C-alpha cells in the first residue's frame, strides 16, 4: 500500500524557492506499513534499551516532553514552576512531573542547579552523561 506524496503546495514551494529537490516529497513514495513497522521496532528497541538514560527518555510521552523542555530551555532557566506551567495538565500533574524529575536526577539524567539571582529557585539541566548518550543514539540512527 503506497501513497504518492505529491501536492500542489510542494510544487509551488519548489517553483518559488531554491530548495533542493531532494527535500521535497513530490517524487518519493512512502509505504505506510514499512514506515510504521520501523517506528514500532525503534520504539520497542529504545524502550527496552540497556542504556538507562535512553530507556528513561522513552518511558512515556511525559518523560520525553519533560526532558526535551529541559534541553531546549533558554539559558537553562527552567524551574519546576516553569515546567508545570508549560506542560498541559492533561499530560501530567505537578506530582507526576515532580516524581519524573526526581527519578531523572536519581539516575543522572538531569541535575538541579540553584539560580544565581534567587537561591530558592532551582533550575534543571541535562547532564553531560545524558547529552553524550543522546548524541551517541542520534549518530547510531543516522
Architecture blueprint of SSEs:
Blueprint: E1 2-4, H1 8-16, E2 29-31, H2 32-47, H3 52-57, H4 61-72, H5 80-86, H6 94-106, E3 110-114, E4 122-126, H7 128-141
Antiparallel strand pairs: 1-2, 3-4
Description:
With 142 residues, this protein is mainly alpha-helical. It folds into 2 domains: 1-48, no CATH class; 51-142, Arc Repressor Mutant, subunit A (Orthogonal Bundle). Helices cover 54% and strands 11% of the residues. The chain contains 7 helices and 4 strands. The chain has helices at 8-16, 32-47, 52-57, 61-72, 80-86, 94-106, 128-141; strands at residues 2-4, 29-31, 110-114, 122-126. The protein has a two-stranded antiparallel sheet with strand order 1-2. A two-stranded antiparallel sheet has the order 3-4. The longest helix has 16 residues, at 32-47. The radius of gyration is 20 Å and the shape is elongated. It starts with a strand and ends with a helix.
Quick take:
With 142 residues, the protein is mainly alpha-helical. The protein is 54% helix and 11% strand. The chain has 7 helices and 4 strands.
Features:
disordered N terminus; two-stranded antiparallel ribbon; 2 domains; elongated; mainly alpha; Arc Repressor Mutant, subunit A; 142 residues
Amino acid at each position: 500500500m503506497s501513497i504518492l506524496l505529491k501536492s500542489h503546495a510542494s510544487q509551488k514551494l519548489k517553483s518559488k524557492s531554491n530548495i533542493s529537490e531532494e527535500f521535497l516529497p513530490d517524487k518519493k513514495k512512502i509505504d505506510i506499513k514499512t514506515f510504521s513497522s520501523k517506528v514500532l521496532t525503534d520504539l520497542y528497541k529504545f524502550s527496552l534499551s540497556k542504556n538507562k538514560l535512553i530507556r528513561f527518555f522513552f518511558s512515556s510521552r511525559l518523560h520525553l516532553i519533560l526532558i526535551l523542555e529541559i534541553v531546549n530551555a533558554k539559558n537553562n532557566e527552567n524551574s519546576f514552576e516553569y515546567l508545570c506551567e508549560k506542560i498541559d495538565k492533561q499530560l501530567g500533574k505537578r506530582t507526576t512531573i515532580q516524581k519524573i524529575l526526581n527519578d531523572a536526577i536519581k539516575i543522572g539524567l538531569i541535575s538541579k542547579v540553584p539560580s544565581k539571582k534567587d537561591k530558592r529557585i532551582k533550575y534543571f539541566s541535562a547532564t553531560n552523561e545524558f547529552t553524550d548518550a543522546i548524541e551517541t543514539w542520534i549518530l547510531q540512527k543516522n
